[in-house]
């Protein structure tokens, strides 16, 4: 089957997608389409493989901006706070994408079955990757299961494993390999990120966290930024700001209350950092969010 026909069938299967992520019934597989508000795209992203089908997504992690023009795929191997925007294709077709959450158990099982000489060893910076027909067909096979739910338990694991394998063999495969190796520095940083997600309101001691990871402070900083695109302090700050935004916009918190709730000691510092990150002061920004969400509902 040629690539255009594969794309056409994928697009047809995604007709019910909307501007909020839709679970497909296939474990870990979600789809989204259309003019997605930028506030929705400012989030803590889960470890995943993303497939931009058409249109373009611009993802900003720290100071690094990555353009993902369809058809292409990308790998987010670790939880990371980011902002983004999406845009239709040149022909006016809406932005469309699929996401597959990374299952570390499946990844580790796959790595155990692969010969060592097949493993990717070269580090490459996070980037969008050109997708080939084999990987695209694997996505199609997984997506087709939404039409035959009874086949999901038997076939979805095989198609998921194929997608992981083909990504592992691609230019971003290094990330998957490092994530799947329990004693790699990358895997240790993943555990640190999990701790930060659970403890972002606390004051963090970089020396203590580095020591728990078995790394010197300079090595820890370097490995953390390589994995996430952010320093540990920037990571914590962005987690706090994202959570505070949700508290104010959707749970009725006042600005100062939200600041204290997520760990800030100074509301004025919170206001400055919030405005810098989101482009508007907290009260104005969250009022705009409520209006947008009300109009969508």
Summarize the structure.
With 297 residues, this protein is an alpha+beta fold.
**What Rg do the Cα atoms give?**
20 Å
Write the element-wise H/E pattern from the N-terminal end onward: HEEHEEEEEEEHEHHHHHHHHHH
How many beta-strand elements?
Answer: 10
Sheet-strand content, in percent, reads 15-25%
Largest sheet: 6 strands, antiparallel
Count of helix runs: 13
CATH class group of the largest domain: Mainly Beta
Overall geometric form: globular
Instruction: Give the name of the CATH architecture of the largest domain.
Output: Sandwich
Strand order of the largest sheet: 1-2-9-4-7-10
The average pLDDT value, as a whole number, equals 92
The name of the CATH topology of the largest domain is Jelly Rolls
Query: Helix/strand-derived class?
Result: alpha+beta
The tally of domains stands at 3
Q: State the CATH superfamily name of the largest domain.
A: Regulatory protein AraC
* Helix proportion range: 40-55%
Uncertain runs = none
Distance between the termini: 40 Å
Protein name: AraC-type DNA-binding protein
Keywords: DNA-binding, Transcription, Transcription regulation
GO molecular function: DNA-binding transcription factor activity; sequence-specific DNA binding
Organism: Desulfosporosinus lacus DSM 15449
Summarize the topology.
Layout: H1 3-13, E1 22-23, E2 29-33, H2 38-41, E3 43-45, E4 48-54, E5 56-61, E6 64-69, E7 72-76, E8 80-87, E9 96-101, H3 104-113, E10 129-130, H4 133-144, H5 152-168, H6 173-180, H7 185-198, H8 206-212, H9 217-228, H10 232-250, H11 255-261, H12 267-278, H13 282-296
Antiparallel strand pairs: 1-2, 2-9, 3-8, 4-7, 4-9, 5-6, 5-8, 7-10
Helix pairs in contact: 1-4, 3-6, 4-5, 5-6, 6-7, 7-9, 8-9, 10-11, 10-13
């Amino acid at each position: 089957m040629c690539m255009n026909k594969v794309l056409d069938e994928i697009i047809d299967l995604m007709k019910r997608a909307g501007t909020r992520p839709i679970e497909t019934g296939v474990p870990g597989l979600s789809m989204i389409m259309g003019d997605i508000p930028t506030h929705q795209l400012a989030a803590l992203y889960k470890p995943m493989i993303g497939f931009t089908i058409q249109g373009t997504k611009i993802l900003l992690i720290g100071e690094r901006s990555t353009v993902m023009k369809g058809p292409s795929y990308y790998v987010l191997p670790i939880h990371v706070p980011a902002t983004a925007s999406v845009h239709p294709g040149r022909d006016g077709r809406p932005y469309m994408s699929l996401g597959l959450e990374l299952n570390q158990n499946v990844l580790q099982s796959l790595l155990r079955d692969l010969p060592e000489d097949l493993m990717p060893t070269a580090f490459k910076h996070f980037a969008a990757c050109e997708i080939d027909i084999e990987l695209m067909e694997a996505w199609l096979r997984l997506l087709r299961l939404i039409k035959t739910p009874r086949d999901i338990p038997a076939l979805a694991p095989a198609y998921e494993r194929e997608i992981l394998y083909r990504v592992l063999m691609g230019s971003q495969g290094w990330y998957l390999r490092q994530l799947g190796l329990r004693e790699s520095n990358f895997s240790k940083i993943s555990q640190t990120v999990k701790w930060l997600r659970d403890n972002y309101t606390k004051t963090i001691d970089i020396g203590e966290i580095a020591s728990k990871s078995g790394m010197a402070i300079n090595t820890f900083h370097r490995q953390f930024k390589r994995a996430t695109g952010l320093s540990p302090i920037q990571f914590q700050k962005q987690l706090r700001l994202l959570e505070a935004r949700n508290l104010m916009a959707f749970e009725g918190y006042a600005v100062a209350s939200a600041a204290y709730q997520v760990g800030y000691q100074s509301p004025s510092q919170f206001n400055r950092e919030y405005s810098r990150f989101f482009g508007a002061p907290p009260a104005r920004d969250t009022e705009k969010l409520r209006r947008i969400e009300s109009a969508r509902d």
